[in-house]
Amino acid sequence: MKKILPLFVLLGFAHLSTTGQVDRWQQKVDYRMQIHLDVETHQITGKQTLFYFNNSPDTLDRIFYHLYLNAFQPGSMMDVRSRNLPDPDARVSDRISKLKPDEIGYLKVLSLKQDGMKVIHHTEGTILEVALPNPMAPHSVTVLEMDFAGQVPIQIRRTGRDNAEGISYSMAQWYPKLCEYDYQGWHADPYVAREFYGVWGNYDVQITLNQAYTVAATGILQNADEIGHGYTSAEVRHKRKDELTWHFIAQNVHDFVWAADQEYTHTHILTEDGTMLHFFYQENERNKDAWEAAPAILAQAWSYIIKRFGPYPYGSYSFIQGGDGGMEYPMATLITGAKRSIGSLVGVSVHELMHSWYQMMLATNESLYAWMDEGFTTFASTEVMNELRRTNSIPGNYTPMPFVDLYNGLRNLIKSGQEEPLSTHADHFSTNYAYGSGSYTKGAVFLKQLEYIVGEEVFNKALLRYYYDWRFKHPNAEDFLRVFEKEAKMELDWYLKYFIESTRVIEYLIDDIKAAEQQTLVTLKRLGPMPMPIDVEVTYKDGSVSRHTIPLRMMLGAKKMDLGQTFKVESDWPWTNPTYVLSLDSPIDKIKSVRLDPSLRLADFDLENNFRELEEN
Prior knowledge:
By secondary structure, the protein is α+β, with helices and mostly antiparallel strands. It contains eleven helices and 33 strands. Among the domains are: 1-199, Immunoglobulin-like (Sandwich), CATH 2.60.40; 508-613, Immunoglobulin-like.
């Protein structure tokens, strides 16, 4: 008799190859969890049924889970790492080492079965190692049934109870989460404070706790009419000592976050594409105006975002007061918000929201490519905030080049001598400064400077193509760059090697300008070890301007248009040559000035030598 597989199983093998032009196999998970939180003891108990789809070409005889809450114990890797960094995160510092037994976090797996058979498992810090009695053949599915228990720690980093603003529960990294297996193998990284990499899948989560708490979470609430708490306009009454079970479903995500507090105000607004934005916060006199203004502003930002960066597929997004600053999750973010001004609240909200594109939908492995999330998100949120300033939606002045501070931040990192290649594993940077300024700042500059290389028009097309080709597929750096090579018809691998995989500095200058019969010869010099294409703007005494671009020979191409302007493409510059002579078809006495990189998008180290004004004859 032929066995008929359930529909969700068939869908597990028919992965998302239709969502873009590029296909890459992905593992898939289907979580069913029933959770109980005791608000008196801060302990959780849970049952987890996990359908795991092995879409890989490999047979798996073992699997791994993350047990993130175990990091919040004295002597953990996160604790030791924080206490030995020269510049520890002030939110962590030595706080973990001082936790008492009833303040620590933990996750304990009480039982685990594979297809009904008990399995051998071992916990090592924040990783659960599991030997499978039935190895998973390629393109097979297995069912993993688990009972687990845990304790919610005092809030220190991202997750926990009773944060600095008085939010009761910020439930991030709270459940046993299957590690990702991809074309590079297992990614069972211990949790030492950086960010996350997860398996695409569906979450069906039921959370039971005291009815006085309002719950905000990833996903769509399925039983709003029973719950109330602002999810329905109908009045719902609960007995004072009753517990409520909240039922959330999220599809095609790689994590699940929730938060709970007795004093949450819950508001919402519908965006033009039909997405419901939810807001959960404790109202006070200092933040009331900001939280009341934020929904309309963020709905306006939403319209710009989906046009600029691509559509949002989930139908709901929640801005939740909690955590310890700002942290992104699928369909939600935890942000602090007790004392924020409107500009600050919108700023952190926009930044965390943009992670929905570069981490929640594209989802590179942040341990290996932190700059592809944090940097790209910083790039996107900088643009969005500048657009909101242009429309006077938030305080501040609009500028055509809002990235100047980021470029200066990169220069400061270089001056500090602490810069490390962005190919460094996120957990292994020598300082938090090198990680933060590198991943956020240099990662954003990487994108803006790429716009300079290929031209704004091509860049905008390529950025959207990257989104459509690679969403839901965990792209790496080479995947990203190939999209831009195809769109720009250029070779760009050198850019990745120099700017990401090394710390070589960009430094160009105008060395000499001299007459040559009816021409003018401008000698440019490369002092830094990193080669780049160079834009030159020549201003003439009659007020006219000529624009020139000098491509690198190894680019095998050049931009012709940029920022709505046409460029004359000059002969290319071999990277081996320290100097280049630009011939201008104009006598020197008609030239007023010569400027390198007038758009300020080249991450040139010293800007003082990029401009030369000619003396009056």
